[in-house]
Specification:
The structure holds two protein chains of two kinds.
Chain A (H helix, E strand, L loop, with lengths): L1 H11 L2 E2 L2 H8 L3 H13 L3 E13 L1 H9 L2 H8 L5 E2 H7 L2 H13 L3 E3 L3 E4 L7 H10 L6 H9 L3 E13 L9 E3 L4 H6 L5 E3 L18 H15 L3 E2 L6 E3 H4 L20 E3 L8 H12 L14 H5 L1 E3 L4 H12 L6 E10 L11 E12 L3 H14 L5 E5 L5 E11 L4 E11 L1 H7 L5 E9 L1 H8 L14 H6 L9
Parallel strand pairs in A: 7-8, 9-13
Antiparallel strand pairs in A: 1-6, 2-6, 3-5, 4-5, 10-12, 13-14, 14-18, 15-16, 16-17, 17-18
Chain B lengths: L2 E5 H8 L5 H11 L2 E7 H9 L11 E6 L10 H11 L9 E2 L8 E5 L9 E7 L6 H16 L8 E7 L7 E6 L5 E2 L8 E2 H8 L18 E5 L5 E4 L3 E2 L12 E7 L2 H15 L8 E8 L5 E4 L5 E6 H8 L5 H10 L3 E6 L5 E7 L9 H12 L1 H10 L15 H15 L3 E2 L5 E2 L1 H4 L14 E2 L9 E2 L4 H9 L8 E12 L7 E12 L5 H14 L13 E5 L5 E11 L2 E9 L1 H6 L6 E7 L5
Parallel strand pairs in B: 4-15, 5-8, 5-15, 20-24
Antiparallel strand pairs in B: 1-3, 2-3, 6-14, 6-15, 7-14, 8-11, 9-10, 11-12, 12-13, 15-16, 17-19, 18-19, 21-23, 24-25, 25-29, 26-27, 27-28, 28-29
Helix pairs in contact in B: 1-4, 8-10, 9-10
């Protein structure tokens, strides 16, 4: 009703200059009018401007008197013409009305407060206080002296009154269209949507958060790398064997038994299962010989090779242990070229810090074919790392017991403005390949890097524990963006 | 990789030119060493003492240079500078030779048979007319330290002793005697000690105590005497004070005692070749005759050059760049390998390489090939490789997919699209986390146990994904509930049928944590995985699909757990995590968990 009143009034008139007056004239509660104006303003049916006024409102006491009459009049009316004793009169009124009534009536000289009897001094009184209070309640203006008197008796208090002046807005219509926030089954099927107006959408707020599943950041990068390898024609090696013998992890790779990497402070050796039970014996003999006295064109290391040392079990320190098994298997059949890769967990008994953990993922790629050259290695590295977005590479000579040449791979990082080491590579030594039984002209080129390091660089993570392990914040896994490695 | 500290100014003086740091870094890079850090002596001291003082401008700049672990000749300034001078062609390859003296006038070292009980080998040599100054002296001491740390494996394989020869009188004897019968004043001490007391004394010596174990338990200790029974040294622990070398020392006697003769010879050669540069007769070393108890005589050091004949086609065939024989010999000379061309009967062009005693790392023709490639420049090879378009295209393809890993990825995607978030936890865990914290007992038949863990975090290989996932929940207490996480990963189990005695198993684990335990949600996930892997729900006992039955595992709440039987095989279990287990992992909210083996879906 209030909305209709506002809209229809504005159809004929320029403006509503005072919402309070407007409400009073129509006998509508002003609060109701205000709500309607706010809502119409929100949808730009009207333009509203604030107006403020100081007004007076009744206190609780004032409200009581406006309804029941002032206490002095109540007192006066309770006195019969013949007068009444104080005790009797007191019984007729409530205590506060009696007390205030006595004081005011005496002040007005309406009553005679005798010792025995209280009696009327005048025959008739007007309840002017009640009349004034009713006028204020109706929003009428009364004289300043009256205000002062009522205020002194704490029957009224000042209040800031807020209202509006209202004009037609840009979307003015005599009747409001129905406003909806969503297309629903109801308004769709009823056709009501056609008459409906869609509430202005809050374009500065974000949408509702979704509940969903997520893949782990490191494994997303692993998946992209796997795709890079697959698109380069590489086949995945089975690496699901964490427990390995020293033989396959070290000896088969021509890593001498006194090599520092075989120390207990670099490698996890096992109490259970402590030693390996079987090794290919004829191959073991050839490995022993190449370590001790060489052969296949080599001088060997000239030391006493110990079988016990080779039998010791450990947690593999690199996936190259798997490569050595795969190459050995390959050598047992008529030769066919292979391109292998793997990405899996390896273990180092090293001190743990921001960039090192006792376990991490090693990426390994290798190509096994006749007549491969250093040129081929560098070519395939260039191809691989370019696909990872690293096009500026350079190579540093390095030492690794089972590769010759050995090269550290550096990539120029545009963000860091420097060369960073991104991997290791080399050609497997003849002392490793020939005892396996591979043909003499078969060569193996290989490279390796960690999965964590490029992932940390990619996602700007500087503590590895924020990426991997049980201390990772689940919130970060959920927020992590897609991995575009290989498609950028 | 070992790191060598050298003064920058001394190094540049030895290289006979100044470099900008960038130029020097590039030189290192192409040679295969690395300028790891630039600092000063005082800065190192400040860092050790955690002091924050301003640096003086005149502090000597120190380069810390990383060298390959098999290049013992680069472990001091003299060797490094020489290698780089030869590489830059500002110096010829030095020709080391033995002083021309008759066998009779050679100094003799007699070896007693008892030494075979503890440390059987000794090799010796003499540097005559050596000119020390403070820097050379320090370098001489540092080189011994570096060798002891690296090839000598902290003195277990080889120990070096150096002596002022003019304080001693030959011939010498190398003996092994009961500790109580050895008495001498050791280096840096004033008084004489009996050897067994000395061992006790050194137990509180930070530097020496770590070497005591090498001979401690032996009934006889190795010891070297001169003709007048002066103790030269008690290897591998300490030298005698009597023959200590000083800045004034002119003639140095070097002995290396060892359990590995090959390494002893390498160590001796490294010492003498490097410092013969400062001898009166440059690069000339005086030999010593070592006479074993059975009368066999050996002359050391063995400076013989090892000749290796490598075909040119082998070298170019491996590098993949065509090179002429003259180019190859020139490149090898820059790597301190004298090389010449020879043509064999069958017209094959060969390169004859003389491997000097300093280059014990050259074992095989492939090492020669690598040195050619280094001198040619890996990055020059790179340019060639890119020019020739030698990417992966040329190489044979052999593509097949690995079923287990492909299946793992497919299942990971299904679980993630079911609303679970993937976690990746450690394979290593503490023994407690793997057993008692899960209310489990170890019957010694399942877990791979690590023998030398650095901390309790690495005592066992997980036999279940559960501890890692519970730890993840414990570390994410503030995360909004419910938490739904999963992991697909390997565990390891002991297995007698495998060569190494253990095997991996590919597991799927999933966990729900919220205001209630969500047992039905985890049950629902089990059904979904089965549905997605095409296994139908059947009645108990039916071997064609899967069903669940009541289980009784200690890590789960009794009555709220079930085992999953798939095609007649128990593949996993799920349930409400036992409140005691939650308490053990400090988790305040209820959880349900499932773990199953996915290899059965292959």
């Amino acid at each position: 009703m209030a909305e209709e009143a506002v809209l229809s009034y504005l159809e004929q008139n320029q403006q509503i200059s005072d919402s309070g007056q407007f409400a009073a004239e129509r006998g509508i509660d002003h609060n109701e009018i205000v709500n309607v104006i706010k809502s119409l303003h929100g949808f730009r049916y009207v333009d509203a401007e604030d107006i403020k006024r100081e007004t007076w409102v009744l206190t609780d006491e004032g409200k009581t008197y406006a309804a029941a009459g002032s206490p002095e009049v109540q007192l006066f009316l309770a006195i019969p013409p013949e007068g009444i004793s104080r005790e009797e009169l007191q019984k007729k009124l409530d205590p506060s009305a009696f007390k205030i009534g006595c004081a005011q009536a005496a002040k007005n000289k309406w009553v005679e407060m005798g010792k025995q009897v209280i009696s009327r001094k005048v025959q008739h009184v007007d309840d002017r206080v009640k009349d004034l209070l009713l006028q204020i309640q109706e929003g009428k203006v009364i004289s300043a002296d009256d205000i002062k008197a009522l205020k002194a008796r704490k029957l009224i208090v000042p209040q800031t009154w807020k209202g509006y002046s209202v004009k037609k807005g840009p979307n003015y219509a005599p009747k409001r269209k129905k406003v909806v926030t969503d297309l629903t089954r109801d308004n769709l099927q009823s056709g009501e949507w056609k008459e409906s107006e869609f509430k202005e959408y809050n374009y500065s707020a974000k949408g509702q958060p979704l509940e969903c599943g997520n893949l782990h950041p490191l494994l997303k990068v692993r998946y992209q790398l796997k795709k890079i390898f697959l698109s380069m024609g590489f086949e995945e090696m089975p690496t699901n064997n964490f427990v390995e013998s020293s033989f396959w992890n070290f000896d088969a790779l021509f890593q001498p038994q006194q090599h520092p990497a075989r120390d207990s402070h670099d490698t996890f050796f096992l109490n259970a299962p402590k030693t390996t039970k079987e090794l290919p014996e004829d191959y073991v003999q050839r490995v022993k010989q190449v370590h001790e006295s060489g052969g296949y064109g080599s001088r060997g290391y000239n030391y006493d090779w110990k079988r016990d040392e080779a039998n010791k079990n450990l947690l593999r320190t690199h996936t190259t242990a798997v490569s050595s098994r795969m190459l050995y298997l390959l050598a047992q059949k008529p030769f066919s070229p292979k391109k292998y890769f793997s990405i899996d967990r390896v273990f180092r008994n090293e001190a743990v810090d921001r960039t090192h953990l006792a376990e991490f993922h090693q990426i390994e790629g290798l190509v096994c074919d006749r007549g491969l050259t250093l040129c081929d290695l560098i070519g395939v590295l260039h191809d691989f790392f370019s696909r990872m977005g690293m096009t500026k590479l350079r190579f540093k000579p390095a030492y690794n017991p089972y590769t010759e040449p050995s090269m550290e791979i550096f990539s120029y990082h545009e963000g860091f403005k420097k060369w960073v080491e991104v991997g290791n590579s080399g050609m497997f030594r003849p002392e490793m390949l020939l005892p396996m039984g591979l043909p003499e002209d078969v060569r193996v080129i290989a490279w390796g890097l960690s999965l964590e390091r490029p992932t940390m660089i990619l996602y700007g993570i500087d503590n590895i524990r924020d990426l991997f392990g049980h201390k990772v914040d689940l919130g970060l896994i959920k927020k992590n963006s897609i991995c575009r490695l290989g498609i950028d | 990789m070992p790191t060598v500290s050298v003064g920058r100014d001394r190094l540049y003086a030895a290289l006979k030119r100044q470099y900008s740091q960038e130029e020097f870094e590039d030189l290192c890079f192409s040679y295969g060493i690395e300028l790891d850090d630039v600092t000063t002596e005082k800065a190192i001291v400040r860092k050790e003492k955690h002091l924050e003082e301003e640096s003086d401008e005149d502090e000597e700049v120190i380069f810390k240079i990383e060298v390959p672990a098999n290049r013992y000749d680069l472990l001091c300034l003299e060797g490094l500078a020489q290698a780089l001078r030869v590489f830059c062609e500002t110096q010829e390859i030095p020709a080391y030779r033995l002083a021309d003296i008759s066998k009779d006038s050679m100094l003799k070292m007699h070896v007693k048979p008892e030494t075979s009980l503890i440390r059987p080998y000794i090799v010796c040599a003499i540097l005559r007319g050596l000119k020390f100054d403070k820097a050379r002296y320090n370098s001489f001491i540092d080189l011994q330290d570096k060798l002891h740390q690296n090839i000598c494996r902290r003195r277990t394989l080889v120990a070096i002793g150096t002596h002022d020869l003019d304080t001693l009188e030959g011939p010498f004897t190398y003996e092994a005697l009961p500790p109580s019968s050895i008495n001498f004043t050791p280096l840096k001490q004033e008084k004489s000690f009996r050897a067994d007391e000395l061992m006790e004394f050194y137990k509180s010596d930070l530097k020496l105590k770590k070497f005591l174990h090498i001979i401690e338990d032996s009934p006889v200790f190795p010891v070297i005497y001169d003709r007048k029974r002066t103790v030269l040294s008690l290897p591998p622990i300490i030298n005698g004070a009597h023959s200590a070398i000083t800045l004034e020392t002119k003639n140095v006697f070097i002995e290396c005692t060892a359990t590995d003769l090959t390494k002893a010879k390498i160590v001796l050669n490294t010492m003498v070749t490097t410092f013969s540069e400062y001898c009166e007769n440059q690069f000339v070393i005086e030999p010593v005759e070592v006479i074993s108890s059975d009368g066999k005589s050996n002359i050391y050091p063995d400076l013989s050059v090892y000749n290796m004949e490598v075909s040119l086609s082998y070298i170019t065939g491996l590098i993949g760049v065509p090179l002429e024989a003259e180019e190859v010999t020139g490149l090898l000379n820059r790597m301190q390998l004298s090389a010449r061309k020879s043509v064999s009967d069958n017209k094959q062009c060969n390169i004859v390489v003389s491997v000097p005693p300093t280059r014990s790392d050259i074992l095989h023709p492939c090492d020669v090939m690598e040195d050619v490639a280094i001198a040619y420049g890996f990055n020059a090879v790179k340019d060639k490789a890119i020019e020739d378009n030698k990417g992966s295209k040329r190489l044979a393809a052999s593509l097949t997919l690995l079923p287990l890993n492909e299946l793992s990825d497919l299942i990971r995607n299904e679980v993630a699209t079911s609303g679970f978030t993937e976690v990746l936890t450690f394979i290593l865990c503490s023994y407690k986390e793997n057993f008692s914290m899960l209310n489990r007992e170890d019957d010694k038949s399942t877990a791979v146990i690590i023998g030398n863990p650095r901390s309790s975090d690495f005592e066992a290989v997980r036999t279940s994904l559960m501890p890692g996932m519970l730890k993840t929940v414990a570390h994410n207490k503030d995360h909004a509930k419910p938490i739904k996480i999963f992991e697909v990963g390997d565990i390891a189990l002991l297995d007698d049928t495998k060569d190494v005695g253990a095997r991996n198993c590919r597991q799927l684990g999933a966990l729900y944590c919220g205001a209630n335990a969500g047992f039905e949600i985890i049950h629902g996930l089990v059904d979904r995985i089965m549905e997605k892997t095409g296994i139908s729900f059947v009645s108990p006992g039916d071997g064609t699909g899967y069903y669940i039955e009541r289980s009784d595992e200690p890590e789960f709440l009794p009555g709220r757990q079930a085992r999953i039987i798939c095609r007649g095989k128990h593949i996993g279990t799920f349930g409400i995590v036992h409140p005691q287990v939650l308490n053990n992992f400090d988790i305040p909210d209820p959880c349900s968990f499932v773990e199953l083996n996915i290899e059965s879906f292959l």
